[in-house]
Amino acid sequence: MNDFAIETKQLTKIYGAQTAVSTVNLHVRKGRIYGLLGRNGAGKTTIMKMILGLTSITSGEINVFGRNIKGQEKQVYPRIGAIIETPGFYPNLTGTENLEIFAKLRGTAAPNAVENAMEVVGLPYRDKKLFGKYSLGMKQRLGIANAILHDPELLILDEPTNGLDPIGIAEMREFIRHLSVERGKTILISSHILSEIYLLADDIGIIDHGVLLEESSMSELKKKNGRYVQLQVSDVSKATLILEREFHTNDYSVQDDHTLRLYDTALHMGEINKALVMQDVTVISSALCNDTLEDYFKSITGGEGIA
Ligand SMILES: Nc1ncnc2c1ncn2[C@@H]1O[C@H](COP(=O)(O)OP(=O)(O)O)[C@@H](O)[C@H]1O
Ligand SMILES: [Mg+2]
Q1: Fold of 31-53+69-217
Q2: Which residues neighbour ligand 2 (ion) by CB within 5 Å?
Q3: What is the pLDDT of residues 42-53, one digit of tens each?
């Protein structure tokens, strides 16, 4: 046994003449948030689809919870929840009604599965609003609620923040972290946005043209890079108090009432984010400045930057 929720070995996908995924060795550790970062067309969705059996594997293997998934699909897939493409929700039913249908179709056993899932993503249970009237953020939340109906140990989320505004992205980050920290889920999440992965993930894999160029923990990556993180928060003085008390650092500067810069890049941004949010400090944005990680990304991909 090992500590990997997902481990791929030489995973490869070839479409016609094109190699979409090339000999990828991915290591997603149990209980961690793994961010798969790469620009559009890098191969992120293809990797996720292969893990979920939505597209065939050209060569290589995938182990989930220490087992090759080939021939083990019935045992493995009930332990995974995913959003890859927007599930086909009915626009003229409410969110709750939609989830009830999916729960029935899947034979989800727990009687309060729908209510629990909606609570986790912060959607009102038995609200009368029709899915067709949902905002994009609410639709994305319902997609995640649908993915966690059966309380899976492993979540695979393909660009769940796509199209969301900064507040929506911050909220999404918050409950993804909640699922990891409070509920012990393992999460594989993809994005083409560096700052999103930077703020959320414990481990990072950088993929370009189907090749996994680098895999490391976020703290290792930060040691190699990074000058400061600029945080925009609702209450700077409260935020600095939390930083000093809980993270024992005074390695920051205050720019204005809502902005502070954190120079101690060995700190875990996800934990800081969580602590701030839990103490009612809203994190409006978090940006890595001096573009060091961005430069790093450029240098290893040999190309232009990433959003
Ligand atoms: N069904 C398919 N048929 C042919 N090529 C595909 C198919 N799906 C994806 N590709 C190609 O594989 C590459 C990786 O795509 P994808 O995994 O969707 O990247 P990402 O999710 O990182 O944007 C792209 O060049 C894409 O055009
Ligand atoms: Mg994709």
Answers
A1: Rossmann fold (3.40.50)
A2: 44-45
A3: 999 999 999 999
